[in-house]
TrEMBL record, chains A, B, C, D:
It is an enzyme of class 4 (lyase). Catalyzes the cleavage of L-allo-threonine and L-threonine to glycine and acetaldehyde. It comes from Halodurantibacterium flavum. SUPFAM superfamilies: PLP-dependent transferases. The keyword Lyase applies. It catalyses: L-allo-threonine = acetaldehyde + glycine; L-threonine = acetaldehyde + glycine. Its cofactor is pyridoxal 5'-phosphate. Homotetramer. Its EC number is 4.1.2.48. Keywords: Lyase, Pyridoxal phosphate. Belongs to the threonine aldolase family. This is L-threonine aldolase.
Length: 350, 350, 350, 350
């Protein structure tokens, strides 16, 4: 009953096996290993993007920060949701890598920005000219930090607004697999066909040990990416171990299967919670995270039994009468079992 | 009838004379000129702060950015009002000088933050720990961008909240003189006695050609300031010309006299506008700027006669019926005359 | 016969096994896993430094850059050898992480700086004061980029000079194990007992997949390190996989055994080369790398047989008469076998 | 007898008068004043460069740092002489503004780099690729820090090497006027006709209070310059006072007349020193600075009489027998008189 975060789940067995296989003999360093060659081809195939530049790094913060830094100048504004990971959870890494930049924070229900909100934010001119930061780029998180998703049409509407102002678009896809599975679309439909220029293609939260790909659909910025990655200390000498993980991930749709499992677990959990008297959802459950509220009595039982999850917002207290509801975040991963879910539901039903 | 900005007014005659006097023979460079020695003493005297470190730079953006950079680390948040100059008008200079940092934007009427808003913003913890930016410092603009002021008691209440969280406080005093004159307090009461650690003591908008002092009340950060100033290209070799301007400014209360003149002109303008049928104030007039609304007919007359000022917000149109009011910003300076004001009032009265 | 670099060798079997063991169930993220707890204890024990702060990152560039950044301000000079990895192989990462800084390049035979050279460099004042970068810190690479080592006495002499000027000292120990084994000293003798303040304790080149520890002997800078690591995107969510590698490394002296094997292979190779007519050493062989020169005929035979290594300097041509010597770098690792070495020697003997 | 530096001389009377004239009424801020319009035209005319972008800043460090930052990326190397002002006297400002970058230091007599040295430095590849800083740009200081100059042919030979590697070229012309006067060439011949892409066109050391122009011959980088200038805090609101100084400077060849006066004074001083028994020149006198050596007895007489100048290198002692020579730097400016020179010569002759 571990729902604290998908970043606490183990790596999938296929991934461990791939690493073991990669551990034979000598391999060229720094991404020149033959596995990476295959990874690049496979990712281009998956995304129907034969020209895309594909790179691996080991953390999502690195993927996002580097992806933003190659498109947004030090004096550019990045339009993102107020709850975006780049704003809330990266301790200023994007600004560090961009050498400046400013995140302009948009509101929007369920961690999704709206076309109207984006148009207003980008259209705002203030005392235009050299005194302000310049319009820079758009960054969408998909799946969002609230467990919702943008569908391809949503993405397209937002990137079209950015493009109309001459701005490129980034997708933070730390949970990209969960979003794609949920939307039932192709990776291409969710990204470049919907106007995305650069994607952080997450693996770590979905069964890898620690690998994210950055997919740059127009490779003009590829060399700059390589230099920035190196300067950031994110170019691995023994790169084959990143390559091997990612190869396993994109082989035989492992990434989609793992995400499917996580999403199904979340759906089961979400539906189960809704059947608890006094419970309700805080955000719709569209990917692998459930944001819900249920009576404190159920919380107490679950916690006594060792269930791991966060109250959401964090700084809430369990104190209070049994029937009074309290909201929480429950994140499922590829390794969440039906038994975990069912046992948890039993507990909170009191 | 020039009310576009106080940064468009000329330098006071005393300042020109001081520069001419300073232009005799050779002088030690980089702030080692004897005039600077006197400036330092005089500013310490004015602020009743015999230990304060005092430095000169030529722009307000430099003063603010350097003042923030010596107190706020690259991973620190600066709490400021949403309309602060450091957010809206410096193209990211504070973040550039801090090597990161993030401005946390607070709301509040008339460009003033409230104790409640500040407490809430600083108290917010989110997913506490290493993932977030850390609590950094407070920055107040006084007089504010809306022509209002914080009185010493207001300042003290806000800095006390910051201090309770271990945070230092900065005052952007680009219009410090106008605020002090308006509040009728001493410079010390408005700053260190009210908890301010570092002040941008503006001169440019109030009769100098281009000089701002940075007053650091605890001199422990003085050497770091000097290094950052040099690295920013803001250490003048022929420093005597900055010193001379500032000496004139702090001699015989010139700075207070000039600000008094600007404030009185604004008050006259403000009261005059209020007597125009259909006119109203957008913000209280507490310093040298008037934010008011009056009928478009009056705007048309004023503009035809060559009056210079900005609609506020900027992107408004003059189109519309004569009686329909339109809001504007009018900034007075030491050189605004009663005749200017009265002629302008006559015009907008239609 | 792979001598191109130790970063191309596989991971040791113990390391793979540790990763597999770590892959059970859920684990707290971001370094809060129980394995990391044990790693910290064990490294403190090995270094006889019960207070030391210990952190893991995945690349040597990250370890060095972060280690330098917590000690050297943006306006500080880092004194290092002209051939140091931080100067030659990190694409400016140290300067990026320090937010400035300047590497002052010292000469010295065999990639070792001398006390005289260091004293002269630190003692140099130029136009002292605010116009110059300030004296910052010392950085030693041990083992060096030329396969030589500093013994504890050498380290102590150099750090004493730095300390006399108030400067801290860093050791880039990407090949720390090789240096310690070669010197026959304890880890403590090579580091804090010899005046080192912060160590990049390398694992990647010596049998890990990609882990380096940063050991900060005085933990006062620990929190700053954590913030900088996060901002750099180097805090792993699934940290247990770094922890597991490092635990295997420091268990049962694996790190020393692997390095011993690499050093012995290099010694065997070095001695063998010296017995080739026309061959000579370019640098003494003191760790796991051999810098030697031998006739082009031998090079041709080795290359035809598929031996992998670099000419050194790089931009040399194989063209020329058979007897004319050409210099090269040969790096051994834990996985270099006697057979590899002997077969190679046979080939170059012609 | 003030020869410590040209940055200690006063402003020329024409400059003060221009400032007084500019101090009439209101003027548009931020470089939109009508004087700047004329300055731009006049500088384009002087440089025969009708498309050039022309900007003003107040310090040489700002001019150099911004000029480099628009051409050199954070991962680029700037090739400059070891004694360049950007290396020795700006406390890392260029690296701060470039967001990285590295100065590659070239040797060369009399502070002049040689074509051979430059070719070797740029041609050096090391472990080419992503691991190193990339080739960035060339920066020449003219007149040099040793009082010598590059003639147009020298400049052209060096920029041609840079260009052959695809690199742009910067000229630090803090003493550009002295170099042009000495070479007897046109400003165009010394700059864009000789391959210079961006010039720091100094005024401060040659009779202004504190103004330098940056002349960008290809205006494609103009907008980026404006943003970087603003972010650096170097955009003046009351810009007219910079404009006025520069207008005086480029009117009626004032800049050339002032530099001619300084150069003539240096020549007189240099020749006079050579006639002193035991004296010799350390560097040829080609602009406004004299580097010479003469007996300690003469030094003592000069210093007792109050002559101001620096021993060169700085850290020399006056102790020693009267006849033993000691080297020094003597800088003349537009305000150095024949009487000053002659009196000084009389003193050191003993």
């Amino acid at each position: 009953m571990f729902f604290a975060s998908d970043n606490s789940s183990p790596a999938a067995p296929e991934v461990l096996e791939a690493i073991a296989r990669a551990n034979e003999g000598y391999a060229m360093p720094y991404g020149n290993d033959p596995i990476m060659e295959r990874v690049r081809s496979r990712i281009r195939e998956i995304f129907e993007a034969p020209e895309a530049a594909v790179y691996l790094v080991a953390t999502g913060t690195a993927a996002n920060s580097l992806a933003l830094a190659i498109f947004n100048p030090p004096w550019g504004s990045v339009y993102c949701h107020r709850n975006a990971h780049i704003e809330e959870d990266e301790c200023g890494a994007p600004e560090f890598y961009m050498g400046g930049g400013k995140l302009v924070l948009l509101d929007g229900d369920h961690a999704r920005m709206t076309p109207e909100g984006l148009e207003k934010a980008i259209g705002f001119t203030g005392r235009a000219g050299v005194h302000n930061l310049q319009k820079g780029m758009l960054s969408l998180t998909n799946a969002t930090e609230n467990g919702t998703i943008y569908r391809p049409g949503d993405v397209a509407r937002l990137t079209a607004i950015a493009r109309a102002h001459g701005l490129p678009s980034h997708m933070d896809g730390a949970r990209f697999a969960n979003a794609v599975v949920s939307a039932g679309c192709t990776p291409a439909e969710m990204t470049w066909k919907a106007g995305i220029d650069v994607l952080s293609f997450g693996g770590t939260k979905n069964g890898l040990m620690g690998v994210e790909a950055v997919v740059i659909f127009d490779p003009a910025k590829a060399w700059e990416f390589e230099l920035r990655r190196k300067r950031g200390g994110h170019l691995f000498s023994k790169h084959r171990y990143l390559s091997a993980q990612m190869e396993a991930y994109v082989t035989d749709d492992l990434w989609l299967r793992l995400a499917g499992q996580a999403n199904r677990a979340a759906a089961r959990l979400s539906q189960g919670i809704l059947s608890v008297p006094g419970a309700s959802l805080v955000h719709p459950t569209e990917a692998n995270a459930v944001f819900a509220s249920w009576p404190r009595g159920g919380h107490r039982k679950a916690q006594e039994a060792g269930a791991a999850y966060y109250f959401w917002p964090f700084n809430q207290s369990l104190d209070g009468p049994d029937h009074e509801p309290l909201s929480a975040r429950l994140v499922c991963s590829w390794s969440t079992t039906d038994q975990d879910v069912d046992r948890f539901l039993e507990l909170i039903r009191g």
